[in-house]
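Deliverable D5.2: sample structural annotation.
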Amino acid sequence: MPHRQARRRRAAAAAALQRRCRCAPLHVAARPLDAGARQRRARRQHAPAHRRHDHRRRCAQPRPARFHSTLTSMRLPRASGVLLHPTSLPGPHGSGDFGPSAYHFVDWLAAAGQKLWQILPLGGIGPGNSPYMSSSAFAGNVLLIDLGDLARHGWLDAADLEPPPDLPAARVDYERVIPFRMERLARAAARFAERATDAERAALGAFRDANAVWLDDYALFMALGEAHDWAVWNDWPAPLARREPKALAEARTLHAQRIAFWAFCQWRFYAQWHALKAYANRHDVRIIGDTPIFIALQSAEVWARQELFELDPAGQPLVVAGVPPDAFSTTGQHWGNPLYRWSAHAEEGYAWWVERIRRTFELVDIVRIDHFRGFAAYWEIPAHERTAINGRWVPGPGAALFTAIAHALGAMPIIAEDLGIITPDVVALRKQFAFPGMRILQFAFDGPNNNLYLPHNHEHDSAIYPGTHDNDTVVGWWRAASPDEQQRVRDYLRIDGSEIHWDLIRAACASVADVAVHAMQDVLGLDASARMNFPGQGEGWWAWRFDWSQVEAWHAERLARLAVMYRRDGTPIV
């Protein structure tokens, strides 16, 4: 029966998580092993030495030799790169994906002397199409799947690849792209079920087994979401919302076909992404990924692990996440994510977070942790409040969380997003674990000479950006800047401002910061219409795309010259 197979997969996966690796146990509550799992464990224990599981090889993430490690962080090599989310890539199907343009972009980065490709979170999008409101902390965004690859496997026909007429090329029209792509994925999954080879079925089965600890809950959650017209899970029938075993078993049988569909989609997402990442690494390009601190209420993990979140018995959030009033919003930002019940995480040794970070490093080479200040203290908003004004600061898990992660995973190349309201406790936490912080040049010129964003105040262990996805483009920022601020920029950089985007890119490359990353919009010199996001505004963002016709040979040549000039090309100091 489907639910019995799922139970066996979860038990085996949980048992694998419980096995102690080189530093500390992962205190994961697993279901008892069935007879088959006990036999497999016995075979492993009595296997010849050369065939036994090597905990160090499995649990320690691959680390390039040039990374210098401390207890928890790795000193990043001096390098530069470009920030571009895959949805912004060109392509024929309405939104960027892991298809040919992604490989072409890697080639372009290599030709431009860039060693880093920074992306936004790879999880499924949530309200407002934001990748920071994902439906899962572990599952990938199925809209990024290359449909052409499915056709090459014989699961789509040539006619299936024809996009709807008049899809815009410069922006993602999510209302049209989502149904088009989801329908094509459904066709591919159905044809896989009909005509897949034994080897293909075995590959999917192996993927489901290896990822059962999160995939089983995710696939069931998505199937139930469809069946309930995407109502929030706490509005589902109580037995399902409360995850009563009988109700879940019946649901796995009733929705087996859709569960298989969502598992198929994750299999293809992971296969395609791993192939793309391997290609990038072969071209000496490392991927900087992004891990949001919070996840959406309407997510598989909140539903599956309700005890880890601040929810009432009915599954309603008691308090939610956000930030107080700031430069982006006079009423603050009311994100609405449920907050973690950190005491419950501590009781299980932060196992959920350890697993989240471990699996993130299977997808990327370097991790940017979003809203790092929330680990020192976070803004807690009562769930009934409509704005973030009436929140309060609450201490976060602090060093205990990162100590647990370090004991389980070792040193990790992590960048801490330490922007916004940064207090001494945030700085102390970041420095305790030697995580590089972030510097934004757009923030540098509206204050005194001790402004930490000014290049003369930068530190080696930091990442410098002219602007990020949350900022205006450099050209848009410049046009909106006051005359006084513009004059300070001219005086400081000794420029006339006619190429302000390249002036800030050059200043970033010249900085002592180990990492310099430039948004693709700034490389192309685009105005505010190309902005990716505006914090605090829920709709109309995350849609920008570029076209290869905008990219000329001199763009790569100029970036490459800067990389060489400022030793971001891998050249060691003599």
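Annotation notes: The first strand starts at residue 68 and ends at 69. The first helix runs from residue 2 to 18.
The annotation will be released with the project's public dataset once the embargo ends.
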